[in-house]
Amino acid sequence: MSTDTVSERGGKGDAPRSGAGKAASRRKLSYPVVLLLIAGGLLLLSLVRLVTGDEQLSNSDQFSSALGAAVPIGLAGLGGLWAERAGVINIGLEGMMMLGTFAAGWIGWQHGPWAAVLAGIAGGALGGLLHALATVTFGVDHIVSGVAINILALGLVRYLAKLWFGAEGSAAAQAGGNDKQSPPMDDMPTFTVPGLADGLGSIEKHDWFLVSDLAGILRALVHEVSWVTVLTAVLFAGSFFVLWRSSFGLRLRSCGENPTAAESLGVNVYKYKYAALTVSGALAGLGGAFLAVGVHIYQENQTGGRGYIGLATMIFGNWRPGGVAMGAGLFGFMDALRVVGGGTTVHAMLLVVAVLLVALAVWKLRGGLRGARIQAAVSVMIAVVLVIWYALTDTVALEFVEMTPYVTTLLVLSLAAQRLRAPRAVGKSYRRGEGT
C-alpha cells in the first residue's frame, strides 16, 4: 500500500464523502467562473467610476497600493494554509509576522534589504517551530499556543527594540533608531517594463470606459513592482504544485485529514506537521519582512493585525492557494482604499457594495429555501441603506474609512461561510499510536 490509499480513505485533495460534502463540492468555483467574476467586478468598478466621477477608484495608483497591501496578507494566509492542511490551527501568524518585521529591521539596516528578507523568513520560521514544539510535541491546545505566541512575540520585539535600537550611544541609535523603530535600510530593487508601462499609462489617462481601468490594473503589474511581490507569486504557484501535485503534499494533507490512517501507512505525522509549521512561520515572517522593507524600517505595531486578516483570507479561500490569493487581493484593495482614496473613494464604494448585495440576494432567491429568502431580504435592506447613505452624503467619516478592511473581513466571511470545508482533523490533538 502507498500513501495514495489515504486519498481513498480520507479523500485525496478535497474529495468529500458525505452528502453535505458532495453539495459543497458542487459549489466549488471553476476557473472560467472565477474569471467571469473578476471581469464582472472590473465592469462594476468602471460603471461606478463613471457614475461617481471618482478616478481614484480604479487607477494604477490604487491597484499598485492594493498589490502592496495584498502581499503581506496573502503570505500570512498562505502560511495559515500550510499549517491547517497539516492539521494545526495557526492563530500565531500575527506574532510570527512581528518576529519577521523585527528580524528584517535588525538585519536590514546593517546588511541591506535582501538580507532583511532572509532574516524575516528565519524569524517567522522560529515562531513556527515554537508553535510546532508546543502543539505537536507537547500537545498544547492550538488556539492557546497561537495566542501565547502572539503575546510573546509582541513583548519580545518591544524588549529587543529597546535593547538594540534604543540603547543610548549604540550604533543603531546613532544611525537613527530608537526604542520603537530600527535605523533605515536601503531600498528594495523594483522592476519596470518601460515601454509597456508608459503605453498603459497613456491609455489610462484617456479615461475610456473599461479599457482605461484594465490598463490601470496591468500597469500596476509592470511598473515599479517589488521583487518580493514577484517572489510571492512564485510561492503561491509553488505551494499549489507542492501540496496538490507531489507525494510530499499528499502526505502532508493526509495529516490534516486523517493522521491515524496516514500513520498506519508509514507517514511520519510529527515530521510533516513540523515541516508545515516551519514553512507556515517562514511565509508569515516573509510577509512581515515585506512590511519592514517597504517603508525601509521596522516600526512597533507594524503588522497592524494583518496576520489575523491573513487567517481570514485562508478561510475565505477555502484552504486553497487560489482562493487565498483572491481573498488577499480583495482585502488589499479595501485596505488601499483608505490609504490612497480616503473618504471620497470609500464613499463611491458604497454603490459597489450595494450592487453586490443585490446580486447576492438574486442568487439566494434561486434556491427557494426559506432561510435563503430571509438572507436575500436582509441583503436588499442593507443595499437600500447604503444607497441612501451615498445619496445623502459626499464623503465617509475618517473613522469608518479606517474600519473598512475589518468590516470587509466580517462581511466576506459571513457570505462565504456556507461553502467552506476545512481539513477534517484540523485543530485536533494527535498522539502517535492513537487508533492502532
UniProtKB/TrEMBL annotation:
Keywords: Cell membrane, Membrane, Transmembrane, Transmembrane helix. Its main location: membrane. It holds the Pfam family BPD_transp_2. It comes from the Bacteria. InterPro entries: ABC_transp_permease. It is found in: Cell membrane. It is a multi-pass membrane protein. Residues 1-15 have a biased composition (Basic and acidic residues). The keyword Hydrolase does not apply. The keyword DNA-binding does not apply. Residues 1-21 are annotated as: Disordered. This is ABC transporter permease. The lineage of its organism: Bacteria, Bacillati, Actinomycetota, Actinomycetes, Kitasatosporales.
